[in-house]
Design goal:
The protein is α+β, with helices and mostly antiparallel strands and 378 residues long. The protein is 49% helix and 18% strand. It has two domains: 117 residues, no CATH class; 227 residues, Phosphatase 2c, domain 1 (4-Layer Sandwich). It is elongated.
Length: 378
Amino acid sequence: MSLKNEARSAFQNTKSFYKEYVSGMTRERLGKEFYEDTDRLKQLYREAIGEDIEKSGIPRHNKMLRLFSSLTQRLNPTRRLTFGLSIVSFIGHYLFGLLGITNFIVFYELLMPFSFVSMLILLMVELLEKTDVKREIDLAREIQLGLLPPTAYTNENLEIYSFANTAKEVGGDYVDMIETPQGMYIIIADVSGKGLSAALYMVRMQALVHLIIEKSNPSPKELFLELNDYVKSDIKDKTFVTACAAFFPSDESNFTFARAGHNAPIFFSKERDATFDLRSDGFALGMTSSANMENHMQEKKFHFKAGDSVLFYTDGLTEARNEFGEEYGEGRLDAIMSIYGSLHAKTIVKKIQSSLETFIGKEKPADDITFTCVHRPE
């Protein structure tokens, strides 16, 4: 194994500078980032032009002006002025040269340097601002990861092991385990959307879940009904949340379960040596009124004996794709649970993680991936 010397030298020669500059510039990474940047430009074009304008036959130069306006509006007024002056200076330099009137323009020789320096300064300021934003997002990521439960947990009745991976710096998946004197709550949820907005909503959901459980020790269905009141309290808020909740009593060999439009967990019964989907009716949180949810949501009770396991997961796991566009799918999860379902929770999670990594290869997940396994040891 080779060890990298991470200490920085006080003197940096040309060779070391070149190595740092080109670090990470592999063919695969450059190609992938080029396509990502192209997609961003396409998204900017769609936002600026819109489908209605694209189909209306407006002249191309008007579309370009609209695109240019949309791009510059993302700059503050000072930077917008600097950008405009640099563009005017650049065009003026070639226009005066083309017309042959350079001798009559006193500041002609300064136009090109001014344009170049203005653009360079503007680029550096934007990069510095982006770096500051990246630092803030990294801090938000640390805070969010700090709110997640421990990866591993064990008591005399249960083994719990979790895995979480965000598609971006922060994510909208939520997994939690809350221990009370009466038993253990397991909650997994997926906030619609990705990124910072979904992460903030997830933090809000976590605070509400803890508040409700500490206040009243509700059943899974009661927990969802009260959560739905909070989610639906803001009429303008169009966010919805899919979730599963299970309660494992301390002194009983069973658990109660409710599902709010989420992926059905996979249950392994050692006695039957078989897997089952824990399907039950229920709308996602924020999709309908609490009165309607109460009428349609089912709460079920299942035996949970020694050697049994149950896997909770978000759709990012089953919808992860490989380089050929194939989805990981529920079939692979079911097969792993069928083979390893009677083993420790950590073993099951590690088997799933290994299988997923082998399947997707070098592909980057497009969605947050979260799953947790609960096992009753023998």
